[in-house]
């Protein structure tokens, strides 16, 4: 790795720089999906326990982000999109980021285990390891399928929330995991099609760089097709219901339509119109995931009212 200490270190770290290390935008998705996994579980924790569970899962997600930024600081310094991050800009030293990541990892895992159960703590530890080591240190720089396999790290939070509440795995938890796992590649590749990235300069083998944009378009379609059965299957489990099934049916039809349009688009046409379709599909993919988890909450609320309390 490049010696990050050689970068400009005249800037002084502010509190916001340390927050940025934790990747707060990614953390928001972690918090939301973990909360849904916890709330739709058949075992309900005390509100204080629930708050602590979500807090420690969020800290674990932040720890992963800090470790990722520490390891990727050399390529972050090369890419325009990331060179302003705290480490390559010199505002935070690599050793600080590593210490923060390791400290938050230990605190979040131990405290989640104490607040809920050991299995939840172990699953959080595995998630941090998977993102920091399996994805960041291995997959990201070695295979164009990095975002496919590495996407598992972002899919674990609802499963952790479920395990924190129940102390066990289930079909419902597995399908929430698969919903995010299968959603991640087409979501990311739709973004990659219209973002002028410099992964090639950083020697990161993203699919658009290694196989070209036509292949990437085909991957968006086929992964979207593969996503649909997992999304719909969740509606037929104990946490599904009429709201989820109706929502999922509409969202998946629109998702398939958008992915088909991406696949059939000529690159020259897409470039000429500013990648309007690709941008629309990317924005819709954000709504897609959010709406699915909101629908799970809605059905949980309906079941609670039917039973006389949630």
UniProtKB/TrEMBL annotation:
Protein species of origin: Fuscibacter oryzae
Record-given protein name: Protoheme IX farnesyltransferase
Database matches in PROSITE patterns: UBIA
UniProt record, GO biological process: heme O biosynthetic process
Membrane topology according to the record: Multi-pass membrane protein
Gene, per the UniProt record: ctaB
Pathway it works in: Porphyrin-containing compound metabolism; heme O biosynthesis; heme O from protoheme: step 1/1
UniProt-listed Pfam families: UbiA
Note: Carbon 2 of the heme B porphyrin ring is defined according to the Fischer nomenclature.
């Amino acid at each position: 790795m490049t010696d990050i200490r050689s970068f400009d270190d005249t800037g002084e770290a502010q509190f916001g720089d340390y927050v940025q290390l934790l990747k707060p935008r990614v953390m928001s998705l972690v918090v939301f999906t973990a909360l849904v996994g916890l709330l739709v579980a058949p075992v309900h924790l005390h509100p204080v326990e629930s708050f602590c569970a979500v807090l420690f899962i969020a800290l674990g997600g932040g720890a992963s982000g800090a470790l990722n930024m520490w390891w990727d600081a050399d390529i972050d310094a090369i890419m325009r999109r990331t060179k302003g991050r705290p480490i390559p800009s010199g505002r935070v030293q690599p050793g600080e980021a590593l210490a923060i990541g390791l400290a938050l990892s230990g605190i979040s895992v131990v405290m989640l285990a104490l607040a809920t159960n050991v299995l939840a703590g172990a699953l959080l530890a595995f998630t941090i390891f998977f993102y920091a080591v399996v994805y960041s240190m291995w997959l990201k720089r070695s295979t164009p399928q990095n975002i496919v396999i590495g996407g598992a790290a972002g899919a674990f939070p609802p499963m952790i929330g479920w395990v924190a509440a129940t102390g066990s795995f289930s079909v419902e938890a597995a399908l929430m995991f698969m919903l995010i796992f299968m959603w991640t590649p087409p979501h990311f590749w739709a973004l990659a099609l219209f973002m002028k990235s410099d992964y090639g300069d950083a020697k990161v083998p993203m699919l658009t760089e290694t196989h070209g944009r036509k292949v990437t378009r085909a991957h968006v379609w086929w992964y979207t097709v593969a996503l649909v059965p997992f999304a719909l299957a969740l509606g037929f489990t104990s946490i599904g219901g009429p709201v989820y099934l109706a929502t999922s049916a509409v969202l998946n039809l629109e998702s398939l339509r958008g992915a088909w349009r991406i696949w059939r688009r000529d690159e020259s046409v897409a470039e000429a119109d500013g990648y309007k379709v690709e941008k629309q599909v990317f924005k819709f993919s954000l709504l897609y995931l959010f709406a699915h988890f909101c629908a799970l909450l809605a059905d949980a609320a309906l079941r609670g009212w039917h039973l006389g309390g949630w």
